[in-house]
Amino acid sequence: MLDQTHTALDGISVSIRDLELSFGAVKVLQDLNLDIAKGEFLVLLGASGCGKSTLLNCIAGLLEPTGGQIFIEGKNVTWAEPSERGIGMVFQSYALYPQMSVKGNLSFGLKNARVPKAEIERRVARAAELLHLQPLLDRKPAALSGGQRQRVAIGRALVRDVDVFLFDEPLSNLDAKLRAELRIELKRLHQSLDNTMIYVTHDQVEAMTLADRIAIMRGGVIQQLAQPLEIYNRPANLYVAGFIGSPPMNFIPGTIAGSEFVGAVRMPLSGYDWERGPHTSGNVVFGIRPEHVKIGDAARHCACQTTVTIEVVEPMGADTLLWTRVGDDEFRIRLDGQTTIHEGQTLPIGFDIDCASLFDAQTENRI
Amino acid sequence: MVDISQTYSASRRLDGAAGARPKRRISASRIMTYGILCVICFYYILPLWVMMMTSLKGMPEVRMGNIFAPPVEITFEPWVKAWSQACTGLNCDGLSRGFWNSVKITIPSVLISIVVASVNGYALVNWKFKGSEIFFGILLFGAFIPYQVMIYPIVIILREIGLMGDVWGLVLVHTIFGMPILTLLFRNYFASLPEELFKAARVDGAGFWGIFFQVLVPMSLPIFTVAMILQVTGIWNDFLFGVIYTKPEAYPMTVQLNNIVNSVQGVKEYNVNMAATLITGLVPLTIYLLSGKLFVRGIAAGAVKG
Ligand SMILES: Nc1ncnc2c1ncn2[C@@H]1O[C@H](COP(=O)(O)OP(=O)(O)O)[C@@H](O)[C@H]1O
Ligand SMILES: [Mg+2]
């Protein structure tokens, strides 16, 4: 067994050690280790079914892990009740108590904790002010809009003065406009509070905009844990590279021959920022993001050049997507929205090594 | 590809008949439907009609024999007699004794069985313990064992615990026999409520009873209504258990009714018998009428998820 001092490190809010969880024979989480700093906004990002909610429920104490330990503020809480962990949780479906008013919803947790009446009043008033809920305090949840309901749900965590906020896809049930608004509101809230926040989402925009760090999960395993830009610029493996970015990174399979990548295109590798020293041979996958591909005159100065025929043009307003092929592989290019390129046009394109990624074809890891 | 001009003109044609909503023509199938419905209604209402009419006639008029005719002279005498004077083989204080016995049996049986079953259902859904599925399976299995098999063993059990012939013995029997179906009902209803609500309440520090009484019960009125109706009507209408497990002084209303109707002393007073039967049926009927809407809603809600 681990002793308590193991994670009594300064500045660590939540620490997860060798966490394991199975539903019967199905291992949903395995060997999961994660340290989250005090006041950090950590986003758990991954496709649906990868175990994000399961991990969050373990941290909240709503699921009992089959192995490993969880520490919150230095205390081993692996077997503690949810209400004893200093966490508050916000759910996708809001989960407001339908028979209670907004005020009743906000104060329910405090009443259970036997907080004195005056103190309850004070905290509810403060949360209502912070979340603009004052005019709604006497309403029932049914009489609120989706955005208002989610603010009440956040308020319910807020009044309890918890160390850690847990969010399970809190914005997924809202329409796009409200989602963007509430996202900003959440970011402001985090800036004005000093709570740690763990936020689960499958939406990479939410993850990129909100996170101090993102943990990308797949099949119950964390693939990469890093700051948003680091993940965008230096994805740790093919999965992360394909998951982050919309449209995703273009991949060209090939080999390294000496100091050159050879595939559907040839690309000198001098200047590439190797992960662990240069490779001079082996099967690899070359990756370049659609927005880092240059066309026309700009392409002539690039280290790697080729010519493609545009198959589909997708104007999106702010930018335009071009769909084409390099070799046999689909290849996407993102351009400024004012471009006049049309379908069927043949274009010179080019890209440089400094924004490219290389992955080992076998291990799929960045090299 | 859809030709836009074509769909446009098509929609124009649809809009064309502006103005008041056209009168629906009565089609043959509609006549058929209403015809069948009327026949069925008639079939069900007729006996009720006969009973109502007979119960409001005096005996001379009953003997004249036209059972469908409305009373020439309305009298409530048979109702009064049925309630307070009709004779069974043992006594002559009418249905009133049976009514109060039934009340004494029904109220505790309904309350206890609903309280226990709702907690059962809640625990089975939200606080799954090791073997909870097996427990539920056994409970359900209980619903399929024929009553007749259990009659004698229960006699022995009640005798051993000293409740044989007692109203409370019958309460116990009703509570146990209602348990499988009621537990199933509550379990399905609670399973249909969002799980996140339960999780939120746990994070908010509510315990087993706190979540049950403060969060779940307030939002479960429809299913409690369904359970109440099922139990009240089932227990009120019970005859078999009542006649087996109670003594004559404690007979429920149904048994009392039977004894009045089948009493062999004197002339058969059809009007009194009809009135007695109607009085006995009044309680379940009232319950249905008062809570019909909630009943339908609860049945629908409980059926959503298994
Ligand atoms: N109660 C459960 N019993 C069995 N399997 C479950 C249960 N809850 C979740 N799972 C499985 O665990 C995996 C992870 O689920 P979840 O954590 O909800 O994913 P996410 O939140 O990332 O979409 C899924 O494959 C899901 O089918
Ligand atoms: Mg989830």
Automatic annotation (TrEMBL), chain A:
<dbReference type="Pfam" id="PF17912">
    <property type="entry name" value="OB_MalK"/>
</dbReference>
<dbReference type="InterPro" id="IPR003593">
    <property type="entry name" value="AAA+_ATPase"/>
</dbReference>
<dbReference type="InterPro" id="IPR027417">
    <property type="entry name" value="P-loop_NTPase"/>
</dbReference>
<dbReference type="InterPro" id="IPR047641">
    <property type="entry name" value="ABC_transpr_MalK/UgpC-like"/>
</dbReference>
<dbReference type="Pfam" id="PF00005">
    <property type="entry name" value="ABC_tran"/>
</dbReference>
<dbReference type="InterPro" id="IPR017871">
    <property type="entry name" value="ABC_transporter-like_CS"/>
</dbReference>
<keyword id="KW-0813">Transport</keyword>
<keyword id="KW-0067">ATP-binding</keyword>
<dbReference type="InterPro" id="IPR003439">
    <property type="entry name" value="ABC_transporter-like_ATP-bd"/>
</dbReference>
<dbReference type="GO" id="GO:0016887">
    <property type="term" value="F:ATP hydrolysis activity"/>
</dbReference>
<dbReference type="InterPro" id="IPR015855">
    <property type="entry name" value="ABC_transpr_MalK-like"/>
</dbReference>
<dbReference type="InterPro" id="IPR040582">
    <property type="entry name" value="OB_MalK-like"/>
</dbReference>
<comment type="similarity">
    <text>Belongs to the ABC transporter superfamily.</text>
</comment>
<dbReference type="GO" id="GO:0140359">
    <property type="term" value="F:ABC-type transporter activity"/>
</dbReference>
<dbReference type="InterPro" id="IPR008995">
    <property type="entry name" value="Mo/tungstate-bd_C_term_dom"/>
</dbReference>
<dbReference type="GO" id="GO:0005524">
    <property type="term" value="F:ATP binding"/>
</dbReference>
<dbReference type="InterPro" id="IPR012340">
    <property type="entry name" value="NA-bd_OB-fold"/>
</dbReference>
<dbReference type="GO" id="GO:0008643">
    <property type="term" value="P:carbohydrate transport"/>
</dbReference>
<dbReference type="GO" id="GO:0055052">
    <property type="term" value="C:ATP-binding cassette (ABC) transporter complex, substrate-binding subunit-containing"/>
</dbReference>
<feature type="domain" description="ABC transporter">
    <location>
        <begin position="14"/>
        <end position="244"/>
    </location>
</feature>
<protein>
    <submittedName>
        <fullName>ABC transporter ATP-binding protein</fullName>
    </submittedName>
</protein>
<keyword id="KW-0547">Nucleotide-binding</keyword>
